[in-house]
Known about the structure:
The complex is a heterodimer of chains A (329) and B (128). Chain A has a single domain (13-311), classed as 7 Propeller (Methylamine Dehydrogenase, Chain H). Chain A is built from no helices and 29 strands. The model of chain A is unreliable at 314-319 and 325-329 (pLDDT under 50). In chain A, strands 2-29-28-27 form a 4-stranded antiparallel β-sheet, with no helix packed on it. Chain A is mostly beta strands. Chain A is globular and about 65 Å long. Chain B has 128 residues and is of the alpha+beta class. Chain B has a domain at 70-126: SH3 type barrels, CATH 2.30.30.100. Chain B has a 5-stranded antiparallel β-sheet with strand order 5-4-3-2-6. In chain B, a hairpin with a 2-residue loop joins strand 4 (98-106) and strand 5. Chain B is flat. The mean pLDDT of chain B is 88. The A-B interface holds A 1-6, 8-12, 28, 42-44, 48-57, 72, 87, 89-91, 292, 294, 297-298, 303-307, 312, 317, 320-323, 325 and B 2-15, 19-23, 25-28, 31-32, 97, 119. Strand 1 (3-4) of chain A pairs parallel with strand 1 (3-4) of chain B. Chain A: WD repeats lie at residues 55-96, 96-137, 139-180, 262-294. Chain A: Keywords: Kinase, mRNA processing, mRNA splicing, Receptor, Repeat, Transferase, WD repeat. Chain A: It holds the Pfam family WD40. Chain A: It comes from Betta splendens (Siamese fighting fish). Chain A: This is Serine-threonine kinase receptor-associated protein.
Amino acid sequence: MAMRQTPLTCSGHTRPVVDLAFSGITPYGYFLISACKDGKPMLRQGDTGDWIGTFLGHKGAVWGATLNTDATKAATAAADFSAKVWDAVSGDEVLTLAHKHIVKTVTFTRDSNCLLTGGNDKLLRLYDLVNPEAAPQEISGHTSAIKKALWCNNDKQILSAAEDKTIRLWDRSSMEEVKTLTFDKSVSSMEYVADGEILVITYGKTIAFYNALSLDLIKTVEAPATINSASLHPEKDFFVAGGEDFKLYKFDYSTKEELESYKGHFGPVHCVRFSPDGELYASGSEDGTLRLWQTAVGKTYGLWKCVLPEDLGSENSEQLYTSPPEIKA
Amino acid sequence: MAAPVPVLRLPKGPDPNSRGFDPSSPRFIALCRTSIPTSAAPEADAEELQREQQVRSELRENFLWCLHAMTNKKVQFHMHEKVKVEATFGASDIDVLNFQVSDLQTPIGVQKEALIRSQDVISLSFDM
């Protein structure tokens, strides 16, 4: 008998969750950081959603948050015109990087030695975390606020998306623009999949997949509603997307077929990301919650417990907690 | 009608009393760099380590006694941007992130009850 998806709701934020990121897989599991307009980004255990700690210090909405691969450092971008670097084990603030306007995006290189930031001042900044006193290198070119910036091609290149409806590829050493993609709509999100060099972009109701090195289009898929964020499964068999109709959609990457849709959030979905092992995906919403969703519904993983058909209705199932059915909007 | 996937429990939410990052968690113990200089060194001299730890304990104890002594006393806070305010000290929270004060004298009036962010404070002084 098919089972119905039970999303796990992570509460704690008091305002919309606008960004989220997973770490890599560490000896202690993997972790999840959420950026929230309440100014208090939170760290959670990735496979259970259990809260670990809150990074306190920002004085404005936090627009971007990221973890380094081994989850020892976190970085956040905020409306208080600063980006901060944190010790993700102790929760202590390690660095405050002052900017001239709202900072929207932060990301570490793989060796965690360089931090890339971007925001409303239209500049990309590269901070050397080994010599934090040194002035950052600046890359200019975008003509409006930068929404998202990423490292790609083994941290040799940078991809940035801005309100000027372009995505630009930059060379890190020369700091020059290599290529530009122009759209007729604002790009709502961008995700980079290193293995396979794939770029996932969303705009309007479209989820588009590009080759991250050449910026050649691979394919586009249309969703039933305006999409704010999408994420490709590590094995590249599925992708998930969420947006303005509050639902999460799951698509087959090869056939582009819509496989499933899930209700659950009480507001638009702002961000969605697969976990590094692909077993679950997390979504952040205007409703102030994060939800964790199973990729393979009914599988035993994290807090989800597989129940065989013969156990349903027997004494065994009393030990399990069945969450109350979601109230349909 | 498909049955919902059962769960063992719901994800744990934030602790209202602390910012988390449990120091007794295995990850913290394994990864947190100690701030004791001697024990951070590869070969730690046991005697030196003990002496350092003792001094740290004394400093910490002094700080806690100081907080205790300040309770209900008038304290002057020297803050950033050349701000100096006076208030009656109530208490500090456990992570020393906020100070609870009463009758905070500000240029725009007296605030009966207030929370002062500790990171905004450069120094404070009071009469014993």
